[in-house]
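[09:14] KT: can someone run the structure on this one? pasting the chain below
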Amino acid sequence: MTLTVVGLGPGDPELLTLKGLRAIEAADLIFVPNSREDGDSRALHIAERWLNRERQQVVHLSVPMTRDSEQIRLTWHAMADQIGSSLMTLVAEREQDDVHGVYLLLGDPLLYGTFVYFWDELTERYPNIVLDIIPGVTSFAAVAARAGMELSTRSDRVAIVPALYTMDMDYLRHLCASFETVILMKVGKVLPRVLAELEHLGLLEKAVYAEHIGMDEERIVRDVRTLKRQQGPYLSLLIIRQRGDDVLPEGSQ
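[09:31] RB: done, structure tokens below
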């Protein structure tokens, strides 16, 4: 039995790789994480057009949005067990080991993807599962393409930093002084503070904001001054792009 972890990309179904598409079409079980209260799964929505509901079974995995460490630990344990037991059950029903599952998630599986949190537990508890991972287009690559901006040239340095709940402004200044490109992932909650600091550093014109890239509600803002005092959603990011000598020296105010 096999489990293929498929990165679906940021949201546009056409950004799914051919290898990922073939894995989805060959699967018997489709595992999708679901953190939305309305029961809808973005991952399932992206892949839906390629599913055969008569042959394939969709298994929803609950991923509650919480910061409680114990609840999070139990969630990863439950997800690993649900995936492993579902595959084992189908193997027993068919009386053969030729069973294929796919775990679908946005973006790339190994860049802030949910799979990495229960990877070790899954392989430890179910060592008979053959695992494969298919990378996906990242949200920041898609934003750069849509906005028509390069992420790096020559020896430019790129920093990718999560900014989900907190963002230390001293650290942000350090990043802007040390890297030509700074990518702040999941920046929505701290967007007002980040923009205020970028204004102080004179970098607002170097920034591009995006949310829900590749989805129906996609939004790209090149003039981030219009976003002051606004928070964004979970699926949001900010790219700060400087070039060569434009990089602020460490300690600049």
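[09:33] KT: thanks! The chain has a mean pLDDT of 91.
[09:34] RB: yep, looked fine to me
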